[in-house]
Amino acid sequence: RQIETGLSEAIAKGELKLVFQPIVGRDLNIAGFEALIRWCSPEYGMVPPAMFIPIAEDSNLIHELGDWVIDEALAALKSWPRQYVSVNFSPRQFRRHNFVGHVVERVASAGVDPGRFQIEITETAIFDNAERAAEILFKLRQMGFRIALDDFGTGYSSLYNIRRFALDCLKIDRSFVDGMGRERESAAIVHSVIHLGRALGMEVVAEGVETAAQLEALRVAGCSHMQGFHLSRPVDAEEALLLAENGS
Ligand code: G
Ligand code: G
Ligand code: MN
Ligand code: NA
Could you name the domain of life of the organism this protein comes from (predicted)? Predict the structure, then answer.
């Protein structure tokens, strides 16, 4: 309740900021950045999104917050030479009335090519209402947006989603990358998702790459893209621009 009030004021007071984490290709060039929200509250300190996003989701605040994220991400993207921006959308945002029209309008008024705007959703967003999700994803693809399935392999993961929805990108959940060096199961799952993605012409992003050994194993396995602290932590907009211009 208190956090909810604080959060609604946080936007106006400029306490929210976006950070950007590079998503790199095999040659370590930066293909895109994932936008991640941060709330630096003078009252509560650094509030992690895992704490305030669910609170925003329980109220209509998520829409105001989501709009702020989209606009901020677009503003950053405009100065990058070629990279895409990947924006997280929670299930509730995805179910918003006229979601597609809303996103299209914001991206268009920023004068940005939808091909440089990636929408990250989890399978939970699809699972809730598969019919409606199919319609939304189809429309977004038609408009030229990139679609990524986030945290792939966790929750109600289904190959059906991959068959049914045209996706641009699969993001392998970091729990599998973490387990890769220890467990046969994780390694096998990572390998098969990489092959599946390649066979279907999708980008596959391994998340949570924290060590040189993981990076090497993923490259050997043929993974197209990597993201994680070993490559770069999320950085502020200024630093993201420098990285984008240098390309690595
Ligand atoms: O950045 P961090 O690891 O703390 O993110 C924790 C969770 O918050 C992740 O699941 C991430 O997808 C989510 N998250 C981060 N930024 C945003 C955002 O701008 N919008 C939404 N809906 N979720 C976000
Ligand atoms: O759920 P989602 O994939 O959107 O979550 C993204 C979150 O993962 C971000 O908040 C980011 O801070 C975090 N993250 C990014 N790279 C790493 C990593 O290498 N290790 C760990 N533990 N977390 C990471
Ligand atoms: Mn994500
Ligand atoms: Na993820």
Answer: Bacteria
Indicate whether this model's pTM tops 0.95.
Answer: yes
Which of 23, 36, 149, 229 has the most ligand 1 atoms within 8 A of CB, as the residue to mutate? 36
Chain segment 111-153, per-residue pLDDT in tens: 999 999 999 999 888 877 888 888 999 999 999 999 999 999 8
| Separation of alpha carbons 45 and 41, rounded Å | 5
Which of 120, 119, 122 has its CA nearest to residue 106? 119
21-35+62-246 CATH fold: TIM Barrel (3.20.20)
**Ligand 1: residue whose CA is nearest its atom 15:** 36
ipTM value: 0.97
